[in-house]
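Milestone M4 deliverable, item 7.
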Amino acid sequence: MAEISKVRRCYNCGAILQCEHPSKEGYVKKEVLENATQNFLFCDKCFELERFKERSNEPLLDPDFLTLLNDAKKKGSLIVYVVNLFSFEAAFNHQINEILEGMNILVVGNKFDLLPAKTSKELTKEYVAHRFRAAGLTIHSENVIVANAFDDETAREIMTRIYELKNGKDVYLVGSQLSGKSTLLSSFLRVFNNLSKGNIVTEPYKNTDLSVMKIPLSTKSNLYNTPGISLDNSILFNLDKATMREIWITKSVKPRVVTLNRKQCMLIGGMAIIELVSGKKTTFSCYFHEHIKFKKHHNKESLPIDERFVKMISKKSLKPALSYIKSVKDLDVYDVVVTESNQRDIGILGLGWVSFEANKQTIRVYVPKNVSMYHSRSKILIKKKK
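Output delivered:
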């Protein structure tokens, strides 16, 4: 009598799992395959490179941009680095930061008004400096300016700080796309008093194919507006206008609370999943657009949560949703193993974040493929009165 057994495949790439040939697709160690108790397995390649990699995806980089930054470093220039305070933590590129480390840097945190009411500006400055240090750049809070919007008064404040720090050198304005860098530049131009004989021009930057705007600050120094750093690792990248309106934050965000028991999941619209894999019951404060609906599910059912997630997207029962998520292969998965005992954040670039009390949890995060996530100490801290 013949027997039928199911052939096991890699849960990520779909290759048939095998233990004989390490150089061929689908390879997994024999003991892993024999001792597996879960319903899904990853081949070694997917496990190491795709599913549980330590470094989340970084934005793509134009090599010419590195040439420009290296030139700025040789000249001892001031870097004015603009970030979107709502979501910037995973927008760094380590190659850029390796060049910028040790340089004179002023950080401008834009869109402070999108954070919850009563958020402390001073604590936000400390948080921004912390995130820059975590990304490899030595920044202190006194070199961080936090702004609601770039009105004329704010633009003058930033321009005054630039003149204080630049030491007669050139200034390079850098930042990711959608950071508000262009808005800041427009504000500069409104209040700009050209004391030199030079003209404001847009021209190719030497030894590159990049086009930059050059603004004369004096007879010996200029401000260069550089191209925005790519956001191809953000959930906002290449979104259609309708979906963008559903998730793009334009006013102060209000936290919503979701409590998960072990093995429970929170579906963040049709965008992402957060699952409490292990640890005690945890309450999450969720900072996302109010149009994004949350759904709780238990991950004990026969169909894995990511497969159910994909089916719900196809049936249009999750809103808003990313239409390009058509299979589990369109999702990256990360495990965050928490050992600290303080307030922590887990965030998704361009979408928002959750905040929770750390207590030895393992939290699994499912995000669209190539979208970056991060974990950090908590961004929102209310300054206590003395």
